[in-house]
Amino acid sequence: EHLFNLKFAAKELNRNSKKCDKEEKAEKAKIKKAIQKGNMEVARIHAENAIRQKNQAINFLRMSARVDAVAARVQTAVTMGKVTKSMAGVVKSMDATLKSMNLEKISALMDKFEHQFETLDVQTQQMEDTMSNTTTLTTPQNQVDMLLQEMADEAGLDLNMELPQGQTGSVGASVASAEQDELSQRLARLRDQV
């Protein structure tokens, strides 16, 4: 509540400062009119008013800054009190958790998680391979080739030169067969588990 009042007071002082700035500008405009009419005494009165408004604007602004600084300090104190209370609660919770933690159970749980993650990875790969083979079989290869050629013609490309070719040679084949063997072994282990 006090913090709100302080912030409100700072805004009010700032608003008064801006109001005084406007009054100062209005008084300066009146000075010009009085000078144009040749009425120097009235011009002097408006000049005094303009100077007074300028000084009031500066004073209001200075007071607004001071009140705003006090509000910031109060806000910091309130926030620190809340943080301290929260940290005390967290420390108590951490103590209770550390006392009840069983590192062997956590380690076993993490191992089981890793194993299940690997199993999921193998199953996902197998499903993707199956889906890929099924989609390839249901789409006639000659239609795929014709569509590729048609798109290449529209784009003005030579299909044989622009499209990337598959790897050739024994190194590519040996790496692919090694990966296939590993996947087959993992799949076999999965089937044995189920």
From TrEMBL:
Name of this protein: CHM1B protein
Family stated for the protein in its record: Belongs to the SNF7 family.
Gene Ontology BP term (one): vacuolar transport
Pfam families attached to this UniProt entry: Snf7
